[in-house]
Structure to design on (764 residues):
């Protein structure tokens, strides 16, 4: 997701389907070994090039701290603060977004430096001098002669700087640092207090994608500074311990002059969304010592445990690197936005305490993206974590009276169509993971989030959070469709709200609220109003009930057309909750197959001077670089030709995922691109979250062992090779599913097995 931009598109013509196996990376006989070896397959630089927007810095699974270098401050590719093509480094900051199309965060920036005093020293580095692995990042700052290493706990960043010149050691705390200032992101205030010559506390206030963001910190030095200087709007002055300022709107840059010595300088920074005192408490609880290597090794252990949730076997080294890096990326967001004692800042901007701190309270839900694959993946390998996320979304409702769309740092950003929090909740219900929850409360939250809210429109007036309250639900409630001449992106909103309303029906049904379920099931069919039998596409409907004319299905205008980040081709296959009804609507399996064939074989030309930059990874008009296309290849399973989908999946898996910085075809989007790869490599995918059913695709792995809460589930793929991309037969727990190529969530159980036989020719 991102504002409009121009960049090179990667696309594959239909011919690539036949050639899918010819350009894959070379293979080895390497097999994953003990759990620690899985770490060697993770490359945090994957996705840092092109427009993947990932970062290489140190973090732990779903942690508040993402300690990473900021090498890119301006434009779309500054979304994560880093780009693989850069050689300039501005600072190391404590918080980052992974794979998003909009930037924010970059809080609490530090930079070791040497040489002449300047307002804002800038480092230079060579790519060959960088290292990154789970929980660790290192780089040589060439112009300063400083080797800088980063590691972290959940709420504390730890930096180790080794200065080549023992007589010239300085450190910058840049409290004016920001990502994407050209997109309106800015620092609006600072609280700063020098506790003593080795401890600094404060709160950092910014305004950007998150309208009201504040982050508190405490910074400790391993040795006291000799002296300190503060630059306020470019004016330098000496300051002493005891100095403080509150609500300072000046550009603040604090320079610390460190004592001479040959030993490394260590800096640890604890952060908190609550207060400097809570940041201090977080630091004391998680990092009371200065042992950098111990923290690093602990991070390795924690990441190893996460990666061992799925152990795969394959002869293809590129698959190993792609898979385990994807599993790593799938565990960066959402991140825990709660202090160690359970205190968090809610969507009402007030402080709350979680009765059970172990539950956590989470932010950075890229829901329009992640409801499709990330959250379904977690229901399999980490069901307790998946439930915690659902509870966190309900907590957001209780504080802010509406479920969030893209919550960020206790803010409603309102980004993207629909209200897909309900999908996360419905999937938990469908899979029996929410049996102990208050489902009447969940239904209430879902209902109140599905309608236009005048009260919140007034409350959020004049702020970015007003984006949460669009008029699309109002039109849906009034007319049964969203008129294209009233609001943009009407078709995308219309079909996605229909799916979301079906999800609400499932929650209400589980809660025993039959009338509510009946009403929302009816609303779940609203998508049908957009179907045009003449063009066999989802077409915008005008206020008078007619289809928009003229109509160009290739047309895209980012944020201005009838489709979100796409066009009619990419949005005409979205009715995952009503596939049987959708087939009837369009005229049966043959029509669906013909439409899919057209999608994948037509020209990849996109029309429009302001076309969405998200339309990448093209095969015909299929766009794997953006999420609305992610389920489409699997729809061949609803025709009599599932082998066509298997061939396409083979192409996507082998060509649009590579173990290189440019290896992710679109924005990584907080784990969604990665989760799609993980599930698809294992050989199945959930077309409709909220319906506890998976469909078989084209597995890449030869064997996989999934560590479930009560034991192991095994996937065995026989006869697998680059040429053998077609499923010949499939069994789950001994039951033959070759004909339907589907199975239920309940089949994924301890001691169970999925067996898939592959071949070089389609099964007839």
């Amino acid at each position: 997701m991102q504002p409009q931009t121009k960049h090179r598109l990667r696309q594959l013509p239909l011919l690539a389907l036949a050639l899918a196996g010819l350009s894959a990376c070379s293979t080895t006989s390497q097999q994953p070994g003990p759990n620690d070896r899985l770490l060697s397959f993770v490359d945090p630089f994957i996705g840092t090039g092109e427009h993947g927007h990932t970062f290489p810095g140190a973090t732990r699974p779903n942690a508040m701290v993402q300690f990473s270098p900021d090498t890119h401050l301006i434009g779309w590719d500054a979304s994560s603060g880093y780009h693989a093509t850069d050689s300039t480094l501005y600072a190391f900051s404590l918080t980052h977004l992974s794979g998003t199309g909009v930037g924010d965060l970059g809080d609490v920036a530090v930079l070791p430096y040497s040489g002449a005093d300047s307002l804002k020293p800038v480092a230079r580095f060579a790519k060959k001098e960088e290292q990154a692995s789970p929980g660790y990042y290192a780089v040589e700052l060439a112009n300063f002669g400083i080797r800088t290493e980063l590691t972290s706990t959940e709420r504390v960043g730890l930096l180790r700087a080794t200065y080549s010149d023992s007589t010239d050691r300085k450190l910058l705390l840049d409290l004016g640092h920001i990502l994407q200032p050209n997109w309106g992101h800015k620092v609006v205030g600072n609280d700063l207090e020098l506790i003593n010559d080795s401890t600094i506390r404060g709160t950092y206030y910014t305004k950007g994608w998150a309208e009201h963001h504040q982050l508190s910190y405490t910074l400790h030095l391993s040795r006291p500074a000799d002296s300190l200087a503060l630059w306020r709007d470019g004016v330098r002055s000496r300051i002493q311990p005891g100095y403080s300022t509150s609500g300072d709107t000046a550009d603040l840059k604090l320079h610390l002059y460190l004592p001479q010595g040959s030993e490394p300088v260590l800096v640890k920074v604890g952060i908190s969304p609550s207060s400097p005192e809570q940041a201090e408490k977080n630091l004391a609880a998680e990092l009371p010592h200065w042992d950098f290597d111990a923290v690093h090794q602990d991070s390795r252990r924690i990441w190893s445990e996460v990666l061992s949730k799925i152990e795969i076997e394959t002869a293809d080294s590129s698959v190993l690197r792609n898979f385990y890096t994807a599993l790593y990326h799938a565990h960066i967001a959402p991140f825990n936005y709660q202090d160690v004692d359970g205190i968090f800042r809610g969507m009402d901007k007030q402080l709350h305490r979680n009765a059970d701190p172990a539950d956590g309270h989470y932010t950075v839900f890229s829901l329009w993206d992640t409801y499709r694959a990330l959250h379904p993946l977690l229901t399999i390998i980490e069901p307790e974590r998946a439930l915690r996320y659902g509870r966190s979304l309900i907590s957001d409702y209780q504080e802010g009276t509406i479920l969030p769309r893209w919550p960020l740092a206790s803010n409603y950003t309102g980004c993207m169509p629909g209200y897909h929090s309900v999908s996360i909740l419905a999937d938990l219900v469908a899979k029996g993971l929410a049996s102990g929850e208050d489902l009447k409360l969940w239904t209430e939250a879902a209902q109140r989030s599905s309608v236009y809210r005048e009260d919140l429109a007034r409350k959020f007036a004049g702020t970015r959070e007003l984006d949460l309250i669009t008029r699309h639900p109002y039109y849906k409630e009034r007319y049964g469709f969203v008129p294209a001449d009233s609001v943009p992106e009407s078709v995308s909103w219309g079909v996605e709200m229909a799916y979301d309303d079906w999800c609400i029906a499932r929650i209400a049904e589980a809660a025993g609220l039959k009338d509510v379920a009946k009403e929302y099931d009816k609303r779940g069919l609203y998508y049908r109003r957009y179907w045009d039998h003449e063009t066999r596409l989802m077409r915008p409907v005008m206020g008078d009930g007619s289809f928009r004319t003229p109509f160009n299905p290739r047309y895209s205008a980012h944020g201005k057309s009838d489709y979100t980040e796409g066009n009619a081709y990419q949005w005409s296959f979205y009715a995952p909750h009503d596939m049987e009804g959708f087939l009837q609507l369009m005229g049966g399996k043959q029509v669906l197959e013909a439409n899919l064939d057209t999608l994948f074989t037509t020209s990849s030309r996109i029309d429009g001077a302001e076309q969405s930059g998200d339309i990448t990874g093209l095969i015909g008009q299929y766009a794997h670089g953006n999420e609305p296309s992610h389920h489409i290849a699997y729809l061949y399973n609803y025709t009599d030709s599932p082998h066509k989908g298997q061939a396409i999946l083979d192409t996507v898996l082998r060509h649009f995922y590579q173990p290189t910085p440019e290896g992710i075809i679109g924005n990584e989007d907080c784990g969604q691109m990665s989760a799609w790869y993980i599930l698809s490599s294992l050989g199945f995918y959930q077309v409709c979250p909220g319906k506890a059913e998976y469909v078989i695709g084209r597995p890449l792995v030869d064997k996989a062992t999934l560590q479930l809460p009560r034991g192991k589930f095994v996937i065995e793929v026989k006869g697998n090779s680059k040429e053998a991309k077609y499923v010949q037969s499939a069994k789950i727990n001994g039951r033959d599913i070759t004909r339907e190529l589907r199975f239920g969530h309940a089949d994924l159980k301890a001691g169970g097995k999925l067996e898939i036989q592959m071949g070089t020719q389609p099964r007839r």
